[in-house]
Fold these 2 entries.
Entry 1:
Amino acid sequence: MRTLENFEEALSHDGPAEAPAYLNRGVAHRYSAIYRFDGELLRNVLLCDKLEQVRPDFLLAVPFKHSFCQFVLRDQAFRTEDSRQDPRLEGHPYQGVVISYHSVPLVAGNGNLWGTLSHFDMHGHPLPDEEFRLMGQAARVFGRHLRLLEP
């Protein structure tokens, strides 16, 4: 059974890279990722790809102003099953490119916003509420481990 306790156990046993991998096993989305805010960019720190392919260059760093993560910062979470049909994204450069996007903030131990934890795909996928809740809970737990991801 997928629980916060199982997430914490996997994180303790296998380290930070297991965080997106554990969460990805419970969703249809191809990607689960952790992005870190870095000035005007978002930098990919960890990526789980269901297809286990080399990380595409376009996922390495994304301009903050062009990211869906800007909405996570603004609204404290963001969910869209189909960006092509989402009026909140009208005119956004990634509307219709990243189709499904669900994300929550990552907050460091000092209380500062550090980045985001996201599930996304170039195809539309719903995210069950229980998986979104687990992702939010996992982000709070993972916040205590962010120092391990600092450059």
Entry 2:
Amino acid sequence: MTQIEFSSDINVKLVRSMASDDMVVQAAQVSAKGENNPDTVPQRLINALVADKHGSPFEHNAFTFFVEAPLFVFREWQRHRISSFNEMSGRYTQLLPKFFVPAEDRSVVSVGTSMRPAFEYDLEALMDVQGVLNHSAIEAWEHYQWMLDRGVAKEVARMVLPLNVYSQMYWTVNARSLMNFLSLRSSQEGAAVPSYPQREIQIGAEKIEEIFKELMPCTYNAFVANGRIAP
């Protein structure tokens, strides 16, 4: 039987980018002056754009990420339709023998509400969850392989696999949409509107935020200073 891998990782890698604060400045100034003003202070202008919700200048930047995560994370991620996705196809290729299990520090017992979720740590409950997920993944993968060996189409055989099976995708997004993603999928102090993302997608958002911060520092600082609300 194929060796099955269990993981708690959400993997994000920047593939390429066309991202700079300077492009935001140029896009903003062409509306009023038709050319870039060398005397402009980028942080001041960008902060004004974010504060006043002038969002279109931030659409002239692009990031392409390679993301590896379980299906239940992708189904939340792909709700952000103001971006582009290409995901591994379970119709055309055999999916990966890799399954997500919660990390050792994951709180899994619900103590909140559906609108304001909150969790508490319970080691016994976590171990039970890990055990059930491991068992169901192994059984599902065996059934998946059995159907493929019988010549069943991949698009049919994949129906047996659970939502914690890993997939891969390319995600291309502009800076404005990326800020919208971060505002909803990350929970940080200083946010004007609190967000309650599932921990697993938040891990991915935190990794993306570090890349955004490095490539577009003025835009990132304005985003944080204005309550983490996308313009």
